[in-house]
């Protein structure tokens, strides 16, 4: 189909708490991606960075920061910020540039150095900023994850054990992933024994924040053929749609939903993949593997339904049956997901695409999803940001 | 010690039976909390006329949780920090869900989805006011 670009190379710096500059992680990821692609840095004519808000000015201009660190060579740069979807927006910018015929090969890159503990708002007293007000009231990101989890319990009869099962599954997936931060098996008992953070979610139900970096070398299909990579995985869709009014559930950092007096509410999360499916001309039945944003264990269950991989309310059953494990009908988060990585915001959406590209190339060893040809990512963050990317081969 | 003042000016009433202060679009009827006085956010509506209204004081518990760990600043914790519950309450007339802390002393074990909740105001600790500041909270309806 037209509208596709090739993924020539992928690279990641291992996730962790390394305490170094985000630039170091980005450079390492970029070098790995360039080597994987077999493309020289000088041949990259567009650098599309995902910004970080926690590392000062260099983070706000991440595209230029990475371009300088890799050695200024006169490429055009772009920096995207879209909370958890920053990496996908950086990819969307590169894709648009390539499809417009303005560049042949681009670097898409994101990296972060994160503080310990809860993500907190920007400093200063700002009662006009909903993000400030909600934190003033003690409403953190896990609060929202927990409200969604409890809602699942009320609507579908999900249990804390159903949530813990997601952690156990993702931990098993991530065991053999050299880029994952946490490579440790968990039992249901381990999860149940961890501290309650936001009832019903325990510490082991909620993802940590991590340092990490991820990069992609993407190109036109013509360029891919010329460098002998005609069969490289392709990006078939990048969806970065906004929510539609009125919102159905209360989203970070809001204190209230929209009022649905004037129209029926629509789920934002389900609209993100819907647009991706439309772009790629495929449906949920075509998906072999999914990388979804398991900020919490329960949220993975929401995503499975939002992606249309099962009927609404059936994701816990699907997980219980083992369908979302590697080897199951529709493996979810074969990388180990955020459960094994922890979130490095600007790198995470790119890392999801890295995993799908490797899965489609059949290089994932113990965590390989056999015969994977089509994969989808999904993520969502603050202020109406989210994305879904489809990769196929 | 003086009477606690509201933490946020113009967000809720405090006298008698307190209520959240919101806006209602004069054209499409959509409600907003907090108040809105610029442009209606319904893309099918271009009204810039709003009435300031008190939102329903009661609603149905949509979902709930608690804060088991002390949240980061600007949250101000009492010493020692005690976990508190947080509610998402669905207002029928407004067809919207509003978050808030749950009344002091009411934990998650006292809550269940669908139960009737009502709005109250209670003081929360504040760095510059020893008497605290008032905020809206949700409480199981009597």
What do you see in this structure?
The complex is a heterodimer of chains A (393) and B (142). Chain A folds into 2 domains: 5-116 and 211-228, Peroxisomal Thiolase, Chain A, domain 1, CATH 3.40.47.10; 140-207 and 236-392, Thiolase/Chalcone synthase (Peroxisomal Thiolase, Chain A, domain 1), CATH 3.40.47.10. The mean pLDDT of chain A is 96. Helix content of chain A is 37%, strand content 17%. In chain A, strand 10 (374-380) and strand 11 form a beta hairpin. In chain A, helix 10 crosses helix 11. The relative contact order of chain A is 0.19. Chain A has 393 residues and is of the alpha/beta class. Chain A has 14 helices and 11 strands. Chain B has strands at 5-6, 21-25, 31-32, 50-54, 58-67, 84-91, 96-102, 116-124, 133-140. The radius of gyration of chain B is 16 Å and the shape is globular. The mean pLDDT of chain B is 96. The interface between A and B is large, with 46 and 46 residues.
Concise account of the structure shown:
In chain A, 37% of the residues lie in helices and 17% in strands. Chain A is an alpha/beta fold and 393 residues long.
Shape of chain A: globular
Q: Summarize the biggest pleated sheet of chain A.
A: 9 strands, mixed
Q: Would you identify the regions of chain A where 5 or more consecutive residues have pLDDT less than 50?
A: none
Overall geometric form of chain B: globular
Order of helices and strands of chain A: EHEHHEHEHHHHEEEHEHEHHHHEE
CATH superfamily of the largest domain in chain A: Thiolase/Chalcone synthase
- Level of helix content of chain A? 25-40%
The separation of the N and C termini of chain B measures 30 Å
Number of strands of chain B: 9
* SS content category of chain A: alpha/beta
Order of helices and strands of chain B: EEEEEEEEE
Distance between the termini of chain A: 12 Å
Major sheet size, sense and barrel closure of chain B:
5 strands, mixed, barrel
Kindly report the average pLDDT value of chain A.
96
Number of helices of chain A: 14
Radius of gyration of chain B: 16 Å
């Amino acid at each position: 189909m037209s509208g596709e670009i090739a993924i020539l190379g992928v690279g990641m710096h291992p996730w962790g708490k390394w305490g170094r500059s985000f630039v170091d992680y980005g450079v390492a990821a970029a070098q790995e991606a360039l080597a994987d692609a077999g493309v020289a840095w000088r041949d990259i004519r567009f650098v599309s960075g995902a910004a970080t808000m926690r590392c000062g000015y260099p983070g706000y201009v991440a595209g230029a920061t990475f371009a300088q660190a890799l050695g200024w060579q006169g490429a055009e740069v772009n920096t995207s910020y879209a909370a958890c979807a920053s990496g996908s927006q950086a990819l969307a910018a590169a894709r648009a540039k390539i499809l417009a015929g303005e560049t042949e090969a681009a670097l898409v890159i994101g990296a972060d150095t994160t503080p310990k503990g809860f993500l907190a708002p920007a400093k200063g007293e700002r009662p006009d900023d909903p993000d400030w007000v909600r934190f003033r009231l003690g409403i953190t990101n896990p609060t929202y994850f927990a409200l969604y989890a409890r809602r699942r319990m009320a609507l579908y009869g999900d249990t804390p054990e159903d949530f813990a099962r997601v952690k156990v599954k993702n931990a098993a997936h991530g065991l053999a992933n050299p880029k994952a931060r946490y490579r440790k098996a968990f039992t249901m008992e381990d999860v149940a024994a961890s501290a309650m953070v936001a009832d019903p979610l325990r510490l082991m139900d909620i993802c940590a924040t991590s340092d990490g970096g991820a990069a992609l070398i993407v190109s036109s299909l013509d360029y891919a053929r010329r460098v002998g990579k005609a069969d490289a995985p392709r990006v078939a869709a990048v969806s970065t749609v906004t929510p539609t009014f009125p919102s159905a559930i209360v989203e970070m950092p809001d204190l209230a939903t929209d009022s649905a007096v004037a129209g029926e509410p629509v789920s934002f999360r389900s609209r993100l993949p819907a647009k991706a499916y439309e772009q790629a001309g495929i449906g949920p039945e075509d998906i072999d593997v999914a990388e979804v944003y398991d900020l919490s264990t329960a949220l993975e269950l929401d995503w499975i339904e939002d992606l249309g991989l099962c009927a609404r309310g059936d994701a816990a059953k699907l997980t219980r049956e083992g369908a979302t494990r590697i080897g199951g009908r529709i493996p979810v988060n074969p990388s180990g997901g955020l459960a094994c990585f922890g979130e490095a915001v600007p790198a995470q959406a790119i890392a999801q695409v890295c995993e799908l590209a490797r899965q489609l190339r059949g290089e994932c060893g113990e965590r390989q999803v056999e015969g994977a040809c089509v994969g989808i990512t999904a993520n969502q963050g603050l202020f109406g940001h989210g994305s879904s990317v489809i990769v196929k081969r | 010690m003086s009477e606690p003042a509201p933490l946020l000016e113009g967000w809720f009433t405090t006298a008698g039976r307190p209520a959240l202060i919101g806006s209602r679009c004069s054209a499409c009827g959509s409600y907003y909390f907090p108040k809105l006085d610029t442009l209606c956010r319904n893309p099918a509506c271009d009204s810039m006329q709003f009435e300031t209204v008190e939102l329903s004081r009661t609603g149905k518990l949509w979902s709930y949780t608690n804060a088991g760990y002390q949240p980061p600043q600007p949250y101000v914790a009492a010493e020692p920090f005690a976990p508190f519950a947080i509610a998402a309450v669905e207002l029928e007339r407004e067809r919207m869900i509003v978050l808030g802390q749950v009344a002091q002393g009411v934990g998650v074990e006292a809550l269940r989805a669908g139960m009737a909740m009502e709005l109250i105001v209670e003081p929360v600790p504040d760095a510059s006011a020893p008497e605290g500041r008032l905020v809206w909270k949700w409480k199981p309806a009597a």
